[in-house]
């Protein structure tokens, strides 16, 4: 697949909904010439309350759609999908650059001052064997204590779009305050949806403690790793004026100011209007969106 890929081909990014836009914005900032496809699988959301096998099967289907639309690389912009599907995706596309996201335990262990790190994530993420192995390895190497907190319902509320709602604040208080009470001085945002409620999270933290709490978001690291893999494969787009040509499935997309001629095309398994609003409200862009069934 990569052997015949063009540097001007798009990067495929997907998440269970709009949370992956927190990763997409880092990719846009660091790789301004890259054409992007974003798939919000909101019709199948949330991933966090589904068995790993189901999430893996769904991730393969979404990845297949993006590859059929010409993607030269894949970004699994969802912690739950990374835990459930990254191995099977890499096995299925062995020559393609694929980047997943995982909670930033290593930077959190380096940032903590008292050795207590709270981890906010979906229930599937914190129960995953890959995550637990990572936790054990970093804990043994750093002596950091990781306090795990599943956050049922939080992704659902963020997907509704009212990021300052009372419902979101109530959930954050339920999940965050106990971690602070246990002494956590660092919090890992272990789901790509969570960076979008930083304002409310800050208020909840301020109401719970006067201590400084460090927040860890790994979107920047994902974009850096993507750039490294594309560079190694000779697939970095250096800024051609040519946009990727649509194939039999894709549609022509309009340049929206990502870079000199970069494009963004959105796809969703739910409401196209909702994704358009999310693009506008969370990224400040007006990008074409298609509703699809896969």
Descriptive overview:
It contains eleven helices and ten strands. With about 290 residues, the protein is of the alpha/beta class. It has two domains: about 1-100 and about 220-290, Rossmann fold (3-Layer(aba) Sandwich); about 105-215, 3-Layer(aba) Sandwich (Rossmann fold). The strands form two sheets. The chain has a six-stranded parallel beta sheet with strand order 4-3-1-2-9-10, sandwiched between helices. Strands 6-5-7-8 form a four-stranded parallel beta sheet, sandwiched between helices. Helix 1 crosses helix 10 and helix 8 (about 165-180) crosses helix 9. The longest helix has 17 residues, at about 50-70. The chain starts with 10 loop residues before the first strand and ends with a strand. Mean pLDDT is about 90; it is low at about 240-260. Keywords: Cell shape, Cell wall biogenesis/degradation, Isomerase, Peptidoglycan synthesis.
Helices, by number, come to 11
> Total strand count, please?
10
Report on the biggest sheet: 6 strands, parallel
User: What is the count of structural domains?
Assistant: 2
What portion of residues is helical?
40-55%
Please provide the ordered H/E string of secondary-structure elements: EHEHEHEHEHHEHHEHEHEHE
- Read across the widest sheet, the strand sequence of neighbours is 4-3-1-2-9-10
CATH architecture of the largest domain, please? 3-Layer(aba) Sandwich
Cα Rg: 19 Å
Give the integer mean of the pLDDT values.
90
* CA-CA gap between termini: 21 Å
For this structure, the CATH topology of the largest domain is Rossmann fold
β-sheet strand percentage:
5-15%
Principal-axis shape = globular
Residue ranges: pLDDT <50 for 5 or more in a row?
Answer: 241-260
CATH class of the largest domain: Alpha Beta
**Helix-and-strand structural type:** alpha/beta
């Amino acid at each position: 697949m990569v052997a015949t890929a063009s540097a001007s081909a798009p990067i495929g990014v997907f998440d269970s909904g709009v949370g992956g836009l927190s990763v997409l914005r880092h990719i846009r900032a660091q790789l301004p010439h890259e054409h992007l496809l974003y798939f919000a699988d909101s019709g199948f959301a949330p991933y966090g309350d589904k068995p790993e096998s189901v999430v893996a099967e769904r991730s393969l289907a979404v990845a297949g759609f993006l590859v059929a639309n010409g993607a030269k690389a894949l970004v699994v912009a969802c912690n739950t999908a990374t835990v459930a599907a990254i191995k099977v995706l890499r096995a299925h596309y062995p020559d393609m650059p694929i980047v997943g996201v995982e909670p930033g335990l290593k930077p959190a262990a380096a940032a903590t001052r008292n050795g207590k790190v709270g981890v906010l994530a979906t229930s599937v993420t914190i129960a995953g064997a890959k995550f637990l192995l990572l936790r054990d390895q970093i804990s043994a190497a750093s002596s950091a204590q990781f306090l795990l907190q599943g956050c049922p319902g939080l992704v659902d509320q963020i997907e509704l779009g009212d990021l300052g709602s009372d419902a979101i604040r109530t959930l954050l208080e339920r999940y965050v305050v106990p971690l602070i009470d246990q002494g956590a001085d660092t919090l890992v945002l272990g789901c790509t949806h969570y960076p979008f409620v930083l304002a409310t999270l800050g208020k909840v933290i301020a109401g719970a403690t006067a201590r400084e709490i460090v927040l860890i978001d790994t979107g920047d690291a994902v974009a850096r790793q993507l750039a490294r893999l594309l560079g190694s494969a000779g697939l970095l787009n250096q800024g051609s004026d040519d946009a990727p040509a649509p194939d039999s499935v894709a549609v022509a997309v309009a340049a929206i100011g990502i870079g000199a001629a970069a494009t963004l095309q959105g796809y969703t398994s739910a409401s196209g209007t909702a994704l358009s609003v999310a693009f506008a409200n969370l990224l400040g862009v007006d990008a074409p969106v298609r509703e699809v069934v896969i």
